[in-house]
Specification:
By secondary structure, the chain is of the alpha/beta class. It has 3 domains: 131 residues, 3-Layer(aba) Sandwich (Rossmann fold); 65 residues; 154 residues, Heat Shock Protein 90, CATH 3.30.565. The protein contains 11 helices and 12 strands. Strands 2-1-3-4-5 form a 5-stranded parallel sheet. β1, α2 and β2 form a beta-alpha-beta unit. The longest helix is centred in the middle third of the chain and has 56 residues. The radius of gyration is 41 Å and the shape is elongated. The mean pLDDT is 90. The protein binds adenosine-5'-triphosphate and magnesium ion.
Length: 395
């Protein structure tokens, strides 16, 4: 019985169409236990109806029947389904055969029906169904997998977005400090100008004088405004990718922190072709630069460095731009270096959360770029500083 797969048979719903009551009953008795279900119809019309009402896997049908004969029933079914169909017949006339071939009938058993023969043919015809079922379940698995992957990716993206905002807010205190420094100088200037007006009032105020003072105040207010705008933009979530020059993004960050870094006596030097343009999320890119130079600032104060320098330089190849941010703040110990891009890794006891560089890496990954870090050694081979290199496509 090698040709009969009983397990498969047991999973099939069979529709059996036969008008002769005696044969029908005998067939039902001998067959029904082999299948999941064995539905019986008494003629072609009844067969068609039961096919439409039930979820049938294979049809076994007689040809010559009242109301609607087997072949006409098959013709009707074939309009919407390629379900396996087996014909049981005593007729071997060529015209039946031709039509049944045209209707893509899957097998023939001759009457009187031999059970073994029939089960064999049904087994053979069911290969199609098994294949279909397999394909379907594979498709289902693939679809679920794809969906799961999509969901996970979306979840991670959401998480990164939240972490980016958290990291921005974690820096809020530091940025407000920087803004305060940034504001002090223009406020002092305005204060002095207003003092000047009242002391000069008696003797030398004329139109020229007023225009000059007004211009100076406007300049200072402009300075205050641009710091304020930078501060607000910093917390904005980017909606779309932008094109901008490296100079733009660095100046934008320096607008916020220049005075603060001056106060700390950290000298920031810019080198190379700053006009190179790149494509990225503008505010996110600012966050990258600010985080890296803030890490340098922390290292300067932790290591009490005297001659504090940050060199930002830009170089490029045909397709890539590299922004290198190099400090002499004491560097990153060898055992720490492999971990610095991990989330929550920090060596700072009090104020570090350790997500700064992790966020930077996710932002750069998202635009298909790379971030690398190398240690800088002094002439006598002592660890002197760190060099962070951001490599992105240039336009
Ligand atoms: N320029 C640098 N010089 C020395 N060490 C650095 C420098 N940049 C990063 N590090 C090291 O890498 C670690 C991870 O940096 P990261 O910016 O991810 O976190 P953090 O600065 O500690 O905390 P957060 O940025 O969340 O406030 C730091 O704790 C520090 O040890
Ligand atoms: Mg940091």
């Amino acid at each position: 019985m090698d040709d009969i797969n009983f397990d498969i048979l047991k999973s099939l719903n069979i529709l059996y169409v036969e008008d002769e009551e005696e044969i029908r009953e005998e067939m039902t008795l001998s067959n029904r236990d082999f299948f999941k279900s064995f539905i019986v119809a008494v003629d072609g019309k009844d067969g068609l109806k039961k096919f439409q009402e039930n979820s049938i896997d294979i049809i076994i049908t007689d040809i010559q029947m009242p109301k609607l004969n087997g072949l006409d029933m098959i013709e009707e079914i074939r309009k919407s389904s390629d379900i396996p169909i087996i014909i049981t017949t005593a007729f071997t006339e060529i015209s039946y055969l031709q039509k049944s071939i045209k209707l893509k009938v899957d097998g023939y058993v001759s009457k009187p029906l031999n059970l073994k023969e029939l089960l064999k043919i049904v087994s053979k015809a069911s290969i199609k169904i098994v294949n279909e079922r397999l394909t379907k379940s594979l498709e289902e698995i693939n679809k679920n997998l794809e969906k799961k992957v999509d969901e996970k990716v979306e979840e991670l993206r959401e998480k990164d977005k939240i972490m980016l905002q958290q990291s921005k807010y974690a820096m809020m205190g530091e940025i407000i400090d920087a803004v305060a420094h940034q504001w002090r100088q223009p406020l002092t200037s305005i204060d002095m100008l207003s003092f000047g007006i009242s002391s000069d009032f008696k003797h030398k105020i004329n139109e020229n004088y007023c225009n000059n003072i007004s211009k100076k105040i406007k300049e200072q207010v402009h300075h205050l405004n641009s710091t304020l705008d930078e501060f607000r933009n910093f917390f904005r979530v980017d909606k779309k990718i932008d094109t901008f020059s490296i100079k733009d993004v660095i100046n934008s960050v320096l607008t916020l922190v220049k005075d603060e870094f001056n106060k700390e006596r950290i000298n920031i030097e810019l080198n190379g072709n700053m006009d190179i343009k790149i494509e990225a999320y503008y505010n996110e890119f600012k966050h990258i630069i600010l985080n890296i130079i803030n890490n340098s600032k922390d290292a300067f104060s932790d290591n009490s460095i005297k001659n504090k320098k940050i060199k930002i330089s830009v170089s490029s190849t045909e397709t890539k731009a590299t922004i290198s941010i190099k400090d002499n703040a004491g560097g990153i110990a060898d055992e720490v270096l492999p971990n610095i891009f991990e989330p929550n890794f920090t060596t700072k006891k009090v104020k570090g959360t350790g997500i700064g560089l992790y966020i930077i890496k996710t932002i750069i990954d998202k635009i298909g770029g790379k971030i690398e870090v190398e240690s800088i050694y002094s002439k006598d081979n002592e660890l002197e500083g760190a060099n962070f290199k951001i490599i992105v496509d240039k336009l």
